[in-house]
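This protein record is not my work; I was only asked to verify it. The record follows directly below this note.
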Amino acid sequence: METQQYIDAIEGILFIVGDEGIDCLQLSKILEVSKAQATALLDDFVAAYHKRNIKGIQVVCFGGKYKLATNPEHFQYYQKLVEQTSATISNAALETLAIIAYNQPVTRSKVEEIRGVGSDTMIRKLVAKALIKEVGREDSLGMPILYGVTNEFMDAFSLTSLDELPDLQDVVQIEQDEDLFKTKYQEEM
């Protein structure tokens, strides 16, 4: 593979790994090159990225992990965005949040088992909104992360303790035999 193809791939890899970042050893395994080559390719990527002269995103390295991050020069705009979007939460995120609140501490795989769908993105969004956090590791194979709610969650829902959450039996559920496609808002003929 040509150097430019590696550099292009690195950009996509950094985008995919997101907040977790990637170190030179991981990158060398993915690109199937030596660690020294991966380091040189990362240096080439950073140099090429700076030449683009785009100032909204920057490449940073914290704790040996490379990642894409927003440029702090534009913090005031990012903060406005967060303030505008922090008041809303999707149904999928709310469902994930409820599962974590009722089952904490809980692993991502347990949340996914209950929801029946992948929840990695929802969990990342909830962590980013500071509604949930890592509270430890489960003592099992792979030591998966355990999640629980935060003080911000308690404030957002005006709770002084989790005991104030409604009992699950009191929560109204959609009956399984109800036709989901029927609605009271039907087109008039």
